[in-house]
């Protein structure tokens, strides 16, 4: 009976862990604003990404109020502003504010979004802080009174992916109680076991199996997201860079699971070797 209870508890712990770990990662890195910013902030430091984003951002500046006679003079200034944007002192703060505003829009109640935001899109970028920075630079160089927009919205993703964000937002916080449940299950498995080394080996092997499943699932999810195109250059550029960053981040958690699994296997075998003559009476 004890062996059955131990095995059942170990399996339950692994099943709970299979859901809890990805959920906790999603909550900390996607759902929570600070985690999202920390994950995406390094994208703004990549030289290639910076340049493409700067050119696209400057291209959204509304120059409709500039007299036709000055349009030819403003165009070279716009091109120069794109090259200088990422080097301006205010760029890091503007990029971080862009990420924060975008996260608030993307994870807000669709009913509270502005009319310009496509509520069916999975992610809404608001690059207004970057546009404001570029507009300020352009206005300072030309002396023209240019007013930056309060919002410059770019929709990322396909029509069915807003529901995905809503599900992730609801599911991710459940990872913490599930992790507690997994810990209790593993503790019960050890307490009830007649051969604790067998529990350690089994859970260690299960952790390696979970890491393999997560790696395959992550790869499939990445390919599915990258396989969709929004038709917007900035949106697709951000999506590709963010998905790569997310894959790397989750990959570090998978690596950690592999390490833990390996350590449990070693601990189990060492425990078995250290007590070869241990016998347990049938109960």
Describe this structure in words.
With 283 residues, the protein is an all-alpha fold. The protein has two domains: 139 residues, no CATH class; 121 residues, no CATH class. Helices cover 71% and strands 3% of the residues. It is built from ten helices and two strands, in the order αααααβαβαααα. It has a two-stranded antiparallel ribbon. The chain starts with a helix and ends in a 9-residue tail after the last helix.
Record field, number of beta strands = 2
- The total of helices stands at 10
What summary fits the major beta sheet? 2 strands, antiparallel
Question: Would you tell me the structural class of the helices and strands?
Answer: mainly alpha
- Please tell me how large the radius of gyration is: 26 Å
Describe the secondary structure blueprint for this structure.
Layout (H helix, E strand, L loop, with lengths): L1 H30 L1 H8 L6 H13 L8 H17 L6 H16 L16 E4 L1 H15 L10 E4 L5 H10 L3 H18 L3 H31 L6 H42 L9
Antiparallel strand pairs: 1-2
Helix pairs in contact: 1-2, 1-8, 1-9, 2-5, 3-4, 3-10, 4-6, 5-6, 8-9, 9-10
């Amino acid at each position: 009976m004890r062996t059955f209870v131990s095995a059942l508890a170990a399996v339950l712990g692994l099943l709970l862990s299979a859901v809890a770990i990805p959920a906790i990662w999603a909550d900390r890195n996607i759902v929570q604003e600070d985690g999202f910013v920390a994950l995406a902030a390094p994208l703004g430091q990549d030289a290639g990404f910076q340049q493409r984003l700067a050119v696209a951002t400057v291209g959204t500046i509304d120059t409709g109020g500039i007299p036709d006679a000055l349009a030819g003079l403003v165009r070279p200034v716009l091109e120069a502003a794109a090259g200088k944007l990422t080097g301006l002192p205010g760029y890091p703060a503007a990029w971080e504010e862009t990420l924060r505003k975008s996260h608030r829009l993307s994870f807000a109640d669709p009913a509270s979004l502005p009319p310009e935001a496509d509520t069916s899109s999975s992610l809404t970028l608001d690059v207004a802080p970057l546009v404001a920075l570029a507009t300020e630079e352009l206005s300072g160089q030309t002396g023209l009174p240019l007013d930056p927009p309060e919002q410059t919205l770019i929709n990322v993703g396909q029509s069915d992916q807003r529901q995905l964000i809503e599900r992730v937002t609801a599911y991710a916080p459940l990872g913490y109680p599930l992790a507690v449940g997994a810990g209790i299950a593993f503790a019960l498995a050890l307490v009830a076991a007649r051969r604790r080394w067998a529990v350690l080996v089994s859970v260690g092997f299960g952790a390696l199996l979970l890491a393999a499943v997560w790696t395959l699932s992550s790869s499939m999810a990445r390919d599915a997201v990258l396989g969709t195109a929004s038709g917007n250059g900035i949106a697709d550029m951000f999506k590709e860079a963010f998905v790569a960053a997310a894959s790397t981040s989750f990959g570090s958690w998978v690596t950690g699971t592999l390490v833990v699994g390996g350590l449990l296997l070693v601990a189990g075998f060492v425990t078995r070797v250290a007590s070869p003559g241990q016998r347990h009476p049938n109960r």
